[in-house]
């Protein structure tokens, strides 16, 4: 009986011991598995490190090879440049030889001009001149012979600006446009009102929706024509009485360089004479020489253009009078202004220099010089002063 009781007591103890042993075996197996996984991970990390080192070595070798090849390319480029320069020298020499042999070769085949083609070209030139004369209604028979006197009407505003009258019939109003960038015109009833000391209080202010640039604007037939600020070569036509933009156009080739070297604020200078509206500007393609363009003010379109030999270097202003360009030159130190290049678009005068046409009694610079064909006078802006020059003319 006692032995049976002992057996019943030993069985749970044995089972407990066996369970503990089984748990220990499972833990040992788990530890072995974790250890194997760590060993595998270490091997993979070691392989990855070896691969990185190999990649670094390969990249260094590639860098050395690339730098070596680039150095070789630089050397080859210098050699190619020397060969090209040598070839250009030989080509220039060959061209000179060809020109020389061509000049001494007496060959009728090289110098003959087809008689019919020559006659056709002459006929076309004559027709073009005839068309231009009709377009310009060329009734001008006088030319500028000198500048007789000056009158300083007023001194108001800064260094840059312009003032003018509309050259149309029965127009007595004076217009003042101060500054090289602005959008307000001051309109005065007449020149006497303008000359009064408190003239700005009696002026009618006309705001422009688009500001102007430079000082090359003109007033013609009740409209102001001006170069729009911020644009390359846009010309705006603004109705002064109705206070609205009437039309706009682009002037090809203009706006890239100043029209006059000594007035860099003006890229497009508009002008009016007996034949209507003109635009004056300079182009890089003409080596800075002044270009004349005739504009149809009603259609706002280009009618014709002329490349002139008059340089914009040391020029401060210009004006048109009787189909003829007159360029005003000065010195950078602001000496005495003078007209030194004249160009007649109809070819009656061609282009010539005339250093005898000096502006009288005054040293300084002009921001603008505009011709009024009705009064045969120049309206100029010089160092803040509004000036009138009277002209002396003679028959062409």
TrEMBL record:
GO BP terms: signal transduction
One GO CC annotation: extracellular space
Pfam assignment, any one: OLF
Cystine pairings recorded for this chain: 140-322
Cleaved signal peptide residues: 1-21
Subcellular location: Secreted
Name recorded for this polypeptide: OLFL1 protein
Record organism: Rhadina sibilatrix
Gene name as annotated: Olfml1
């Amino acid at each position: 009986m006692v032995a049976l009781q002992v057996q019943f007591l030993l069985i749970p103890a044995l089972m407990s011991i066996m369970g503990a042993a089984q748990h220990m075996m499972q833990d040992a197996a788990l530890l072995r598995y974790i250890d194997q996984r760590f060993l595998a991970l270490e091997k993979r990390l070691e392989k990855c490190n070896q691969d990185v080192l190999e990649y670094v070595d390969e990249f260094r070798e590639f860098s050395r090879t690339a730098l070596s090849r680039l150095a070789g390319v630089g050397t080859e480029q210098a050699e190619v440049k020397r060969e090209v320069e040598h070839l250009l020298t030989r080509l220039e020499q060959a061209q000179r030889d060809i020109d020389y042999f061509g000049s001494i070769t007496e060959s009728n085949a090289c110098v003959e001009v087809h008689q019919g083609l020559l006659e056709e070209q002459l006929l076309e030139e004559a027709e073009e001149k005839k068309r231009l004369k009709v377009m310009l209604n060329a009734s001008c028979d006088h030319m500028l012979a000198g500048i007789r006197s000056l009158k300083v009407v007023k001194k108001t505003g800064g260094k840059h600006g312009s003032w003018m009258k509309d050259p149309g019939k029965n127009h007595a109003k004076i217009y003042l446009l101060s500054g090289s960038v602005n959008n307000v015109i001051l309109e005065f009833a007449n020149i006497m009102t303008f000359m009064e000391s408190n003239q700005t209080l009696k002026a009618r202010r006309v705001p422009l929706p688009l500001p102007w640039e430079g000082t090359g604007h003109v007033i013609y037939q009740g409209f102001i024509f001006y170069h729009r600020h911020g644009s390359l070569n846009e010309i705006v036509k603004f109705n002064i009485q109705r206070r609205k933009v009437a039309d706009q156009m682009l002037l090809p080739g203009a706006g890239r360089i100043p029209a006059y070297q000594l007035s860099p604020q003006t890229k497009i200078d508009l002008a009016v004479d007996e034949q209507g509206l003109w635009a004056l500007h300079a182009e890089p393609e003409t080596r800075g020489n002044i270009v004349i363009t005739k504009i149809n003010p009603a259609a706002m379109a280009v009618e014709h253009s002329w490349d002139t030999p008059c340089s914009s270097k040391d020029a401060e202003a210009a004006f048109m009078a009787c189909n003829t360009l007159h360029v005003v030159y000065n010195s950078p130190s602001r000496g005495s202004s003078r007209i030194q290049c004249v160009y007649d678009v109809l070819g009656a005068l061609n282009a010539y220099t005339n250093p005898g046409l000096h502006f009288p009694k005054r040293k300084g610079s002009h921001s603008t010089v505009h011709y009024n064909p009705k009064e045969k006078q120049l309206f100029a802006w010089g160092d803040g002063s509004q000036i009138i020059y009277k002209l002396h003319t003679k028959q062409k």
